[in-house]
From TrEMBL:
Its EC number is 1.1.1.-. This is SDR family NAD(P)-dependent oxidoreductase. SUPFAM superfamilies: NAD(P)-binding Rossmann-fold domains. Gene3D superfamilies: NAD(P)-binding Rossmann-like Domain (3.40.50.720).
């Protein structure tokens, strides 16, 4: 886990599900939410990674459970919701954070690559939101937070399919905000910039997939010149916005994308 536990209790009594929480940004979200008193379901396709993060939260005195889920499979998503309701008795906040990165030049992007990235990043958000919204609707309240990207607004030529998938997450943020507002449910997005996580290990490879050099941070550094604050981010830079969007402080905000990118995309 990449974020220190805080001492606040802004989310005491709340239950959050964070998908893709076995690593990186999602793990930081889970840690920060738990530090504010939330019970957190750490959901990931990598069950061992999820268990590791959930155990760390528990060791620090937080409430957490690990759930193995494939966000592209409705049955798996339904089972995740059932497990969380059985374990914690409620769900208040859903973080749709699971995602995969694809770096591929526009002209060589294949159908297979397109389907994979759209399935996890796009369809996964639709399925998880639908299944958790059923519970939110019964209680007339709930929050959904989608991990978008700078790519949602500013696609690059080497990330065409990924950017399309993240544009779809932003579109789903807007459409679900409209669809779910009548039920007291808000939906917002967080747009991380360049955040140092395992996702960027792909950047350490050339077009043939071969590893280039020894230091994966070199590829990240190439992107620094496009960042106003002149550094790549950490998961801990993004987590406070997740806490804000899970808390009552954001109750009158819906359908919005908050960029946490050090100043890459100026909206
Ligand atoms: N790291 C960045 O620079 C950056 C920038 C913008 C947006 N994002 C987004 O942030 C989110 C988290 O990325 P990260 O950087 O922490 O990456 P990461 O690779 O560290 O974590 C992604 C997690 O998603 C999980 N996952 C993948 N497919 C899944 C599936 N089908 N079902 C459930 N879980 C699945 C992985 O097992 C992994 O634990 C992603 O949506 C990513 O697109 C990342």
């Amino acid at each position: 886990m990449t974020v220190d536990q805080g001492t606040g209790q802004r989310l005491r009594g709340r239950v959050a599900i964070v998908t893709g929480a076995g690593n990186g940004i999602g793990a930081a979200f889970a840690g920060a939410l738990a530090a504010e008193g939330a019970a957190v379901a750490v959901a990931d396709i990598d069950g061992d990674a999820a268990q590791g993060v959930a155990s760390t939260i528990q060791e620090r005195g937080g409430r957490s459970l690990a759930v193995q889920v494939d966000v592209t499979d409705r049955g798996s998503v339904r089972a995740m919701v059932s497990t969380v309701l059985a374990g914690f008795g409620d769900v208040d906040v859903l973080f749709n954070n699971a995602g995969v990165l694809l770096k591929e030049p526009y002209l060589s992007t294949t159908e297979q690559q397109w389907h994979k990235v759209m399935e996890v990043n796009g369809l996964g958000v639709l399925l998880c939101t639908q299944e958790v919204a059923r519970h939110f609707i019964t209680k007339g309240r709930g929050k959904v937070v989608n991990t978008c990207s700078t790519s949602s607004r500013s696609p690059s030529a080497h990330f065409a399919a990924y950017a399309a998938s993240k544009a779809s997450v932003l579109s789903l943020t807007h459409s679900s905000a409209r669809a779910l507002a009548p039920y007291g449910i808000t939906v917002n997005g967080i747009g991380p910039g360049i955040i140092q996580t395992n996702l960027w290990s792909e950047m350490h490879r050339d077009e043939s997939g071969s590893v280039v050099g020894d230091d994966p941070t070199v590829a990240l550094d190439d992107y620094t010149s496009s960042i106003l604050l002149r550094r790549v981010g950490t998961p801990g830079d993004v987590a406070p916005t997740a806490v804000f969007l899970a808390s009552d402080d954001s109750d009158y905000i819906t359908g919005q994308l908050i960029m946490v990118d050090g100043g890459i995309v100026l909206q």
